[in-house]
Amino acid sequence: MPVSTNKTPAIKNAILFGNGLMRTLGSPSSPDLLKQTICSRPCGECAGSYCPFTEEKDCLPFPLIYEYLILKEQKQYQEKNMRAISAMMREKLKKQLERFTPQNHPESVLHALADLRADDYLTTNYDTFLHRILELRDYEQAASQNSETKYSIRRHVLMRKQETSHSCRLWNIHGTYNDRPDSFTIQYGYEHYCGCIGKIDNYLKGTYTYQLRKKEISIPPMYKKLQDDKLRKGESWIDLFFFSNVHILGLNLSPEEIDLLYILNLRSRWLRDPKIKNRIRNRIVFYGQPTNAVKALLKQFSVEVRSSSPKPPGKNAEKQAYENYYKRVLKVIKSGMQQSEN
């Protein structure tokens, strides 16, 4: 297929952030949040049986901790089916996260995140904190896509501010507690992660379909999108990893984030394909100090690693340490975005 001769669209900016930014509000770590929403017993009451929260040297990956706990919960309360337990977990999660509101944290670093005026914001978090910040800043929800009942390949909201004509899309790529009652999009466990990877693989390779007004829509493979700009419709956040500069912060990209690593891996393979490598012009930038293993892997994935000094705060650090750290990182990102626009 010949490469399109049309003028290449301008590269936009996307921000991918994780739970690290919510730690600035005093939010629990991901394992602690899991413990509070799934585990029905206080620590110390699991004597004689395995506890994933106390045996750090013998710890399961995060998604498997979820599977272990939710299956154990169902075994304890056999009158409940898995859907009922999942619904209970979502309500607990919602109760935990709704304590953190923009009104209660007017000086939060997440307000500075909104100041970046990026074109897209992606988050692995389950909350709608950024959405509410934008509403406080006179943004209105102009459109939304929420037809998916389990996965979040296309799910997003479009926010627009009439005064400045600025608009941005918000993507909760691992789902949110604030979805429809008949859906469960929160991506916690292995079953959900693996199913999501299947959807991502379909999307990238051109076998993904969805229904729109009773009509089946097919997505062309990413390989063809890279060759023909007219095929780029931006239906999913997955596209951003190939056509937008993506700035990653507050996310450690550990092996548990297998869905994101899968995309980065396939992108790096295509960067080595002489037929299309020159069509991938965007940058992926990771801000933080990953482990040596992850840093080496990201290098092979053609991800730029911006290691900051001093080191990011540890998992048990006070929220002010997180606040100071991310304020510095956001200044660096804002400067980089402005330079790319000039």
Helical run tally: 12
Tell the overall outline. globular
Annotation, overall tally of beta strands:
10
> Low-confidence spans: pLDDT under 50, at least 5 residues?
none
- SS-derived structural category: alpha/beta
The end-to-end distance, rounded to whole angstroms, is: 33 Å
As laid out across the biggest beta sheet, the strand order is 3-4-5-2-1-8-9-10
Structurally, the number of domains stands at: 1
Strand content: 5-15%
Biggest sheet descriptor: 8 strands, mixed
Radius of gyration: 20 Å
- Fraction of residues in helix: 25-40%
Question: What oligomeric arrangement do these chains adopt?
Answer: single chain
Give average pLDDT, whole number.
Answer: 86
Q: N-to-C SSE series? A: EHHHHHEHEEEHEEHHEHEHEH
Pfam families: SIR2_2
Protein name: SIR2-like domain-containing protein
